[in-house]
């Protein structure tokens, strides 16, 4: 029996340092029935030529370029519209998957009759070196828990189109992934992760995750715009967010010795 097709959405922008390794991490999957839909957001470096070279030799890689720089939300939605897989999965142009990532997740979804899952992941630096940190999550992640903290790594989430349809992605430039998973959890109430690390998340010098102040500002905006709360309610939500970040979430971060 043919295994279900997985559509992998990858937006790119000036990713020449990392995009080849990212694509190769998909090509190295033990689960091979996939398509990559790669949308470039007007890169000015050699990203596009690198992608085209891969697409030339692997017909599962589909490439589109935006006409003007529009942000990852626009890029992801364009890729989503072109996706033909039963499952939708996400990967950023600088992150990596471990070889068993798709196989483990599809098996987990089917064995547990689930429409959505995610996994743990390890952190690496710009050079691809381990930061000896593994990010885990609650084994039964509720909407309320996700409301105060994005426990779902964007590079690990995967959902069933037969259950959800194609879930549109916010076109705001920041925190799209958190809003995306909130939309999904609002429907199913609870999510279960594959309880192992299946990916490498790259922490870059200029990324949001490297700036705590920016992260707080963008999260406050999620409460104000996505949830539609007024200023005072959003401040109260941020109190819960900070408590979760400082007290609860560290319980799910573990020191490891990871090999790349």
Structure description:
The chain has helices at residues 19-27, 47-57, 72-82, 101-112, 143-148, 161-164, 176-188, 212-226, 231-248, and strands at residues 6-12, 34-40, 61-65, 87-90, 96-97, 116-124, 130-135, 141-142, 158-160, 190-202, 253-255. The protein is of the alpha/beta class. Strands 1, 2, 3, 4, 5, 6, 7, 8, 9, 10 and 11 form an eleven-stranded mixed beta sheet that branches. Strand 1 (6-12), helix 1 (19-27) and strand 2 (34-40) form a beta-alpha-beta unit. Helix 8 (212-226) crosses helix 9.
Query: What is the assembly state of the chains in this entry?
Result: single chain
Radius of gyration: 18 Å
Number of strands: 11
The separation of the N and C termini measures 33 Å
Short description:
The chain has 9 helices and 11 strands. The chain has helices at 19-27, 47-57, 72-82, 101-112, 143-148, 161-164, 176-188, 212-226, 231-248; strands at residues 6-12, 34-40, 61-65, 87-90, 96-97, 116-124, 130-135, 141-142, 158-160, 190-202, 253-255.
Secondary structure elements and their pairing?
Elements: E1 6-12, H1 19-27, E2 34-40, H2 47-57, E3 61-65, H3 72-82, E4 87-90, E5 96-97, H4 101-112, E6 116-124, E7 130-135, E8 141-142, H5 143-148, E9 158-160, H6 161-164, H7 176-188, E10 190-202, H8 212-226, H9 231-248, E11 253-255
Helix pairs in contact: 8-9
Primary descriptors:
260 residues; alpha/beta; 11-stranded mixed β-sheet; 9 helices; globular
């Amino acid at each position: 029996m043919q295994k279900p097709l997985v559509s992998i959405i990858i937006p790119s922008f000036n990713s020449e340092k990392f995009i080849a390794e990212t694509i190769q991490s998909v090509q190295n999957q033990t689960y091979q029935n996939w398509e990559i839909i790669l949308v470039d957001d007007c890169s000015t470096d050699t990203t596009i030529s690198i992608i085209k070279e891969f697409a030339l030799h692997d017909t599962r890689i589909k490439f589109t370029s935006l006409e003007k720089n529009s942000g990852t939300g626009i890029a992801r939605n364009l890729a989503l519209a072109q996706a033909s897989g039963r499952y939708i999965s996400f990967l950023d142009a600088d992150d990596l998957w471990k070889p068993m990532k798709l196989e483990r997740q599809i098996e987990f979804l089917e064995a547990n009759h689930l429409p959505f899952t995610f996994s743990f992941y390890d952190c690496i630096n710009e050079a691809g070196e381990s930061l000896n940190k593994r990010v885990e999550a609650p084994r039964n992640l509720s909407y309320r828990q996700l409301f105060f903290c994005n426990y779902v790594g964007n590079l690990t989430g995967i959902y069933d189109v037969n259950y959800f349809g194609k879930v549109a992605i916010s076109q705001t430039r920041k925190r799209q992934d958190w809003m995306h998973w909130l939309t999904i959890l609002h429907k199913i109430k609870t999510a279960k992760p594959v309880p192992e690390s299946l990916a490498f998340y790259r922490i870059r010098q200029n990324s949001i995750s490297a700036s705590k102040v920016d992260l707080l500002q963008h999260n406050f905006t999620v409460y104000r715009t996505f949830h539609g709360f007024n200023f005072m309610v959003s401040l109260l939500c941020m109190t819960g967010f900070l408590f979760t970040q400082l007290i609860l979430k560290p319980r799910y971060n573990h020191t490891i010795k990871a090999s790349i």
